[in-house]
Amino acid sequence: MILRYYADAEIPEWHDRTLRLLRTLHDEHGITVEIDRVDEQHGPITDFPGEVRYPTPEDVYERDLKRNRELNQAIDQTPSEAFKRYGKLDIAGNIAVVDDEGTVRWASTLPGYADGYRPGVESRTAMDFLEDIAASPSNRLCVECLSLLDGDENFCPNCGYEVP
Ligand SMILES: [Zn+2]
């Protein structure tokens, strides 16, 4: 599985923090990380331990999000509600969990931190998700195989890894 960052988050601090967390996840957990830079707003990304691509938001929406049934089941909104607000694509700043077949299984629908929105949206924000999985132990994602967890497992249903 792969962690994919749809860059750039609008706020420079979120963008920089996301890059640092992705490096940590790669270095400490061996997680494959990559960037689809759909909206380049900040400086060049150097020394990133994964692929950096420059697709258009339309390409990413068609490939990853649109009519994605797996994603539809994993998030509260439909992908079009979440990423195509008022007919305009709104993808940059989010994080996606991509399986080995290339299907997006989960994606944040709010860039940044929950406290920038309203209480109770931690499960939907990119930064809270990344910080949670970078700070082991995480009950949201198996750091061994990147399977999504629902928070009360003792072991990963996919690979058997014991959740600490
Ligand atoms: Zn696992």
From TrEMBL:
InterPro entries: DUF8045 (IPR058358). It comes from the Archaea. Residues 3-134 form the DUF8045 domain. This is DUF8045 domain-containing protein.
